[in-house]
Amino acid sequence: MTDSSTRDFYDSLAPDYHRIFADWDASIAHQAGALGALLGPGPHRVLDCSCGIGTQAIGLALAGHQVVGSDLSPVAATRAAAEAAARGARLPTAAADMRRLPFVSSVFDVVVCADNSMAHLLTAPDVAAALADMRRVLRDGGLLLLPLRDYDEIRRTRPGAAPPQVSESSDGRVITFQLWHWHEDGERYHQEYFQLRPGGGDDWAVRVRRTTSWALTRAQLTEFVAAAGFVDLRWHDPVSSGFYQPVLTARAAG
């Protein structure tokens, strides 16, 4: 993980991130409902350690959980707190690297790391460090939720692009798509993230942002999570969970 390039990517994307959703508030509510079902009866003390602009954290806070958000991007973390306040929720946030979380040990019941954030950790030591710190801040028996893009088939076919997304915003239609350039190892890929918005007249305004990801398979992530001191590992597919990506849940061993 190259801290500065990943942070720059999300600092740049933060003002526009909501535009990838047809209805961001509806997505906030839906994702919180799906994740909340995996959390079980609460309220819980929740850390969203890759909170972005708050898509999962805001919904969980509105559902009554005590949520703290952190993110590598200070721009995204600041926006998440502001968006939560605008919706009547309390969401304290911090700019923080998930490999070095600024929280005391055993303070949370749940840690969430969503929106494919684990994929930005590009080496095994990086992944291990992040999971070790997630385990540290969880109480014994606490729950880890790790949604991740379904990379098993993607690794087999190595597509050159992700399907485009089209959404409507207050200033017109927005088209988002990604081009993927695979590294020689067949596991990591450089990502060009395009966002097209209506410009003047018949023109489109195009914004391109770039980052790199590691296409971790389920087997790889499962092995990393088990090695970090978690037990009761379970994968939940979108059909059963209602969440838009597969979710790995695990419990912090006592």
From TrEMBL:
Gene3D superfamilies assigned to the protein according to its UniProt record, in alphabetical order: Vaccinia Virus protein VP39
GO MF entry, a single one: methyltransferase activity
Pfam family, one: Methyltransf_25
Sequence ranges assigned to domain Methyltransferase in this UniProt record: 46-142
Domain of life: Bacteria
Database matches in PANTHER family: 2-METHOXY-6-POLYPRENYL-1,4-BENZOQUINOL METHYLASE, MITOCHONDRIAL, METHYLTRANSFERASE
Protein name, as recorded: Methyltransferase domain-containing protein
Taxonomic classification: Bacteria, Bacillati, Actinomycetota, Actinomycetes, Kitasatosporales
